[in-house]
Design goal:
With about 625 residues, this protein is of the alpha+beta class. It is built from 20 helices and 14 strands. About 35% of the residues lie in helices and about 10% in strands.
Amino acid sequence: MKKNLIYLLSILLSGQLIGCDSFLDRTPTDFLTDEQVWNDNSMILGVLANLYDNVPMNGSLQDDVNFSLIDDVMWCGLMNTDVETARNQMVAYAYDFLRYYDYGYIYKINQSIEKLAKSTLSEDNIVVFESEFRFLRAYVYFELARRMGGVPIVTETQSYTSGMDITQLQVARSSEAEVYDFVYSECMAIKEYLAANNGITNVSRANKYAALALASRAMLYAGSISKYNASMANPISSPLQSGVVGMSGTSPNGYYEKALSAAEEIINDGVFQLHATASSDDFYHAVCSKDNNREVIWSKDYSSGKFHTFSFANIAWSMNEDNDNGSDLCPTLGLVESYLPLNGGSGRLADKDANGNYIAYENISDIFAGRDYRLQGTCLLPGQTFKGAKLDVLAGVAIYQSNGSYLLIEGSEANSSYVPAEDHPNADGGPFVGKDGPLSRATYTNTGFNLRKFVDEAAGSSARGQGSYIWWVYFRMGEVYLNAAEAAMELGQTEKALRYANAIRERAGFGANSWSEADLTIDNLLRERRCELVIEDHRFWDMKRLRKAHQQWNGIQSENTMLYALYPFRVIGGPDNGKYIFDRHVAYRFRAPRNFRIGNYYSSFSTDALNKNPKLVQNPNF
């Protein structure tokens, strides 16, 4: 008997149908009998592989463009009108931004669990597979909750028969708190069964600690939304259905306790550990290297049979192994300055002195010296070596003037020399623009920096035909420690909070016990997350759950809302001849301040979804 799948529930709840895509060349199971699929380990693994491959993501190593809207990087790639308008000239975040409402995916999981219950496989195999399906369902409900708020919780398949009252299949939204509670309870129910997967190569399948990491993250979100939504001047709530947004009526402490407990179970068990670092290279490898890695808890793995093009899209031009592309996403000056000096002090780079005069540096890299290891493990800075080459960034020349000021002259062609011409007859023939720019066009950095994290250092990885096998990290120990630190701080457990925060800071080069109780603030912890978790899909959501997004990105031009660049210039003439000065300015292609409105805290439901399920209510502020 062939499978006869009626995706009516997905139509009623989301109006979407999903097809099955093969993953790592596994055989699709769409036209096999139930007996063939659910009594065969390899076939069930094929179903799971399909679901793992389609876990919802807000940006990925296969599609990087969204990161320019949800993290501290600027879109410096191709300049077609649609992309440029949506990324660098966006008037405001759309109310449907990052909308996700896919009950076709949930239907597949529910059906898989029901079919598996009738399998003739051993009980040991069945319980592990069932737990993986439940983990994926819990993860999807977490993604739904952080985008949409409360959504219908559906854990069984439903089908329509002729003459049935269709309203029986329509499910109302659960409260936001109920969805987060569901995610947590599922994770705790399945975590011990998932221990059987703890040794899976490259942690590509859910294991015990992935379940605990999801529980910790979900509870941290629930606690912070409960606390900080209530503290808003006008807390977000729905006039149409109580509790579906804003976590109204809930106490944050219970959630923080669960977040801390789950994180500490991971830390104390010791199966996964913080990767020790003594340099920026060590931090890069803690995230990006698979060999003997005990930092990464769950990943989306890649191999020669399924590679991605993130390195091709983001490699610095001078290091490119292809004849096109590169520098899609470039770190902003704001991100670079979030990494503090190891000896203390402000993160602001010393481009000018207190009197507003440029400060000259002997070497182009000197201005960045002595900072948090994570800076050069995440970003490539002028003069930094990667893949056997130095990032060659030079914007132009600074001509010394008789009054002590400089005339800044920018070049327009990469890898050029400052030779005599009509507009600069006294040129010295030295370097003008670097191989990597900066230039205000695609394939070159527009900010003065390039990305290192998730860009592969392996030979050939930035070529289109080969691609990269670096994994995408869903959960790792850096986040777990920061979750524990934040939850403990919110609970007033200062000693624990300092222990976990200082562990993260110590491996970033700050030394033991670098923070005292006075340093333990939500803003400082937010900075740590900003530095630690770049391009790991946290920055946008951290700002949302802490209800800071509408204040930070308020649509008014400022250093918070505009993306800034730092351009180095070579000095010609005067006492600092041959040295370098730096000019900060808004990145030329970035035209509109980031504008996050109150209505962006919860994505809107589509008209189609509302029409198909009248029991849904729209989110507020649209």
